[in-house]
Amino acid sequence: MRRLRACLGAAAAVGLAAAGTTALVAGSASGATSALSNRWYAAAPYLMPLDNDPPDPAAIMDATGLKAFQLAFVLAPNGGGCSPTWGGTAAVSSDTAVQSVVNTIRAKGGDVSVSIGGYGGTKLGQVCSDAAATAAAYQQVITKYGLHAIDFDLEEPEYENTAAIKNEIGAAKILQQNNLGLYVSVTTAGTADGTGWFGKQMLLEAKSQGFTPNNFSIMPFDGGFNGAASQTGALTNFNQILQSTFGWDQATAYAHEGFSGMNGRSDTGEFFTQTDFQTVLDYATSHNMDRFTFWSLNRDRQCTPADNGGRTSGTCSSVAQNSWDFAKYSVKFAGATPPSSTPTPTPTPTPPSTGCKPAWSSTAVYTVGNEVSYNNHNWKAKWWTQNETPVASDWGVWQDEGAC
Length: 404
What we know:
- The chain is an alpha/beta fold.
- The protein is globular, with a radius of gyration of 20 Å.
- The N and C termini lie far apart (53 Å).
- 32% of the residues lie in helices and 18% in strands.
């Protein structure tokens, strides 16, 4: 990969975009190291550095050999405006917490990509005036952290907004042009036939703008999937969509195709085990696909007490596993050999608490850390909420604390 490090401000990025001049990836001010190979950025699993009980990336690196992390998610401010934040609340411009995580990873020879968008929240493409303004906001993130890679996670509700998707694709093209060698992935929803109507419209928008990222990745989960066979079937169908949309042959389409899975129990109660991940990994490598990643490292550990199968959690997988089992498949995709793992232990269940918190009320206002009970489970609020029924979801306001 061709990588040069030099500082580039957001305003300069937009000016260079208009002039068609190539800029360089920023990095010296933020401690960026030399770039990893593209394969590592393609293998980077998602990590929420500020939410969902963030694990220690250094421990994951030591245990698995993993070198790259996909940090999630950059959004527009909850209060409005075209400036980047973590999760809608923590301004990138003043951030020190995520920078500390980045520094830890780089000190051990690794690197990060940053994912923008995701499910829920307000995306910058929805509120910025045009593609150039959207790109300027994202350039702040690239410059702040000295990024060599970035992921556009385009899904609900943003990908149903034609103007927003036009801004996001346009911004991705500008960033690709203005940051030499920047690795760019575009991630969207997966369906049994590859991707849905909105995903296909996003591909057509990319074609109309003449934009080709390193890969278009689909997420074949939360859509009636059942194990690896359904996922590889969706990847085969998506390959055909890429061929028909861009006029690529099969091999070229696979070289621009990626997989983004969900480890363990999905939001809709599907299950994807280590065996499923191995099957999809074999498919991805045998077809020379460009990307293999998953949501998320925060979930790559066994639930305690061992609630394997009973709920979907943002902090554990709900399947039997050793910590970081799923990360090792990313290491294999990158071309490295993870350390040998010990057999999955038989956990000693910790008796769940039998005490229920005060009952949830639809009229009450709850702030971060408030606890309630609903449907014989205790729940903890992750941020301010009112009249949002407690339900288990990675992206919802409530964190399931187990039965009571």
